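Notebook, p. 212. Picked up where the previous page left off. The plan for this session was modest: take the two constructs that came back from the sequencing core last week, fold each one, and keep the raw output in the notebook itself so nobody has to go hunting through shared drives later. Recording the first one now, exactly as returned: residue sequence, then the structure token string.
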Amino acid sequence: MAYTTIDDPSAHFQIALYTGNQTGRSITYDGNSNMQPDWLWGKSRSNSDAPTAIDSSRGVGNVLTPSATEAEGTGQSQYVTSFNSDGFGLGTDGGMNRNDYTYVSWGWKANGGTTSSNSDGSITSTVQANTTAGFSIVTYTGTGSNATIGHGLGATPHWIILKERNADDNWSVFHTSVGNAGKLRLNGTNATITASTIFNNTSPTSSVYTTGTDGELNGSMVAYCFTEIQGYSKFGKYTGNGSQDGTFVYTGFKPAWIMAKRTDAAKNWYIADSTRSPINVNKAFLVANSNDAEDTSGDATDSYFDILSNGFKLRQDFSHLNASGAEHVYMAFAESPFVSSKGVPTTAR
């Protein structure tokens, strides 16, 4: 049985759906627990528009665009105005609140915006960490050469997203299933990029991760670091079978959010969640590396997957997500654990 220390995932991760009206207001979560988000990743569902990433370490006025290389936009105080005790404040700027656009915002809890200096690595970093849920936000300035950076998790990271803040540069992704000699690109379709200069052929440890001489990891950086927590999060891989009776992926929980990408070919990053698509088959997808509106066109030959009580199952032969014999990586967070700490099983959808 997949017992967990987190019986209520909504204490650490929640999803909000809303319609923009270009006026200042608060968005309140409806999960079982009150949760102040520290990283918000938002996207228009109804219209093509750039996604946004805002966190409480960099501050509400500093906006990054996960689908693009562009540097951090500063002074953008009307995107998100506050991180609240159970949600967030929206301003009048259209980037997160355009009139009549529908939106989704994914929110993760770190440490309520309280940061600390971390000297575990050769570079001093600034960290706010939620060790219970295995998530930290790290900021630092790279040296241009091989370095180690403290992440504050107290456990080995399985997934790290990194972005240079002050320059137009790509988003780099470390994933444990890709290994320490390669990276993926969040804002692109690239297959795995391999080079010893990326992570210096060195895997993360429970205290630090390593960067080489790759320029995309050596400026003024922000990094979002995750380690697996049983029953709450999972970062793994699966092999596609090219069938509508597709691969089953065990996570140990009923997923609330899944992002997946094929790693051996130039394919998109696809994001699904149980809030936008509450019944199976899940066919409401957004693409992380694109500004496109939500795709809900899944049908008998192009549907995507079922969300189950203990994982997800591919339900299509789509080459991006279930190519026969191809390797795909995924990241997933729980709606509920398969089995609670008290031995109570979750129900299927």
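Okay, moving on. Second construct, recorded in the same format:
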Amino acid sequence: MTTTTTAGSSASFESSQTKSRLLVAAGEVFAERGFANATVRDICDRAKANVAAINYHFQSKERLYSAVLQHAFVAALEQYPPTLGLPPHASARERLDAFVRAFLLRIFDEGRPAWFGKLISREVLDPTSALEDMIQLAILPQYQALESIIREMAPNLNAEQQRRAAFSVVGQCLYYHHCRPVIERITSSPQYTRQNIDRLAEHITAFSFGGVAALAGTAPSGPAGAGP
């Protein structure tokens, strides 16, 4: 009985290890080649797994791709949640700062898989059927949290104005990531260390807070617009 149990535990552990290797290998291959050009054999070779392992663990390449995106997003959000542990009574300014800081830490964390940012960029620019799941799982909840902060900061703005303000906050964060090669050449700035990220978060928070306050002071309340 003991021998059987030990053998079963060993097999279960090996299966779990294989699944983890597939997720990492798939992330690398999908980021390098895109979903369409990545092959099951390429992924299994890199993961040192049997070619049937993907069907066994994920049923298909499509489901594996979706699992890779979800795995990466969930891990990032767990490590750097949008509130960064703030107490419930934190002010809107404090919550905005935490949101921006967490966002920057997620996209600049050098300890995270190097393929994560590239994979997400590929998915956004050339979306697959997995994008909808990614939006529902990770992107929409974050957006709703940010929009609630904007709403608290400027309740007189209509829904369209609040939405655009939220997009502007995110746009600043993404600019520093996507345009990093250009920024580094213009400014000769060093790598994004934790200290640099903290300063950048302070700037984006102050700039955004001031911008929303200016909008709130000049824009009358009105019905929500239909635009983006």
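Notes on construct two before I forget. The chain has a mean pLDDT of 85.
Flagging for discussion at group meeting.
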